[in-house]
Design goal:
Helix content: 10-25%
CATH architecture of one domain: Sandwich
Structural class: alpha+beta
Order of helices and strands: HHEEEEEEEEEE
Radius of gyration: 51 Å
Number of strands: 10
CATH topology of one domain: Jelly Rolls
Largest sheet: 5 strands, antiparallel
CATH class of one domain: Mainly Beta
Mean pLDDT: 82
């Protein structure tokens, strides 16, 4: 028995209705009018879209004005320096030598006077002296730092069987341009000796 004609008509109409609905959905597009201003952020875009939004690097700008000069740094350490010198001593005489020694000796002071270099005033302290051989029983050698033709507190005496002497008290001021020397005074029977000394200098 054949199906009634009206049944095929109903099925065909339903198919047309579904096709029309599908076409209408596919043709619906989202436009700028459908989006509220400011409602879409960069996180809603694809990586490709975000990359496309980045502009190219512009030309380098002109150099800015030079900044103000910084303040001076803190002064460096005033750690003392060591000065070493040497000269000679002869029995029964006074000898003079430059402050830095160098083996130079003279019987008078003017020829060996050494000026203090320009700069801050220096302070000399802690004189230590050594001789290779002791002066001998009852004999002595005295070593003195002189500044401006005058003895300073930096002086010590090596006597008898000793070979060294030192002073840890007293200082001597060495102003720029001041004339300095080292004097050795040996007693009449003292053994002839090389004199070696050291002292500290600080500003």
């Amino acid at each position: 028995m054949k199906a009634p004609v009206w049944k095929y008509v109903a099925i065909g109409g339903a198919c047309l209705a579904l096709g029309a609905a599908g076409t209408a959905g596919a043709s619906s597009l989202i436009t700028g009018k459908s989006i509220k201003d400011g409602s879409i952020g960069t996180k809603d875009l694809s990586k490709k879209a975000r990359k496309a939004l980045a502009g190219k690097t512009g030309p380098r700008g002109a150099a800015g004005a030079r900044g103000a000069a910084g303040s001076n740094g803190a002064p460096g350490s005033a750690a003392p320096a060591l000065l070493v010198g040497n000269s000679g001593a002869a029995a029964g005489t006074s000898r003079f030598a430059p402050l830095a020694g160098g083996g130079v000796t003279a019987t008078t002071e003017p020829g060996v006077l050494t000026p203090v270099p320009p700069g801050p005033t220096l302070t000399a302290r802690d004189l230590v002296v050594r001789v290779p051989a002791a002066p001998g029983a009852g004999e002595s050698i005295t070593i003195t730092l002189r500044v401006a033709n005058a003895d300073t507190p930096l002086t010590c005496t090596i006597a008898n069987a000793a070979q060294t002497c030192s002073t840890t008290t007293g200082t001597a001021t060495l102003a720029a341009g001041a004339l300095t020397s080292m004097r050795t005074d040996a007693t009449a029977g003292a053994t002839a000796n090389a004199i070696i000394w050291s002292l500290r200098l600080s500003s």
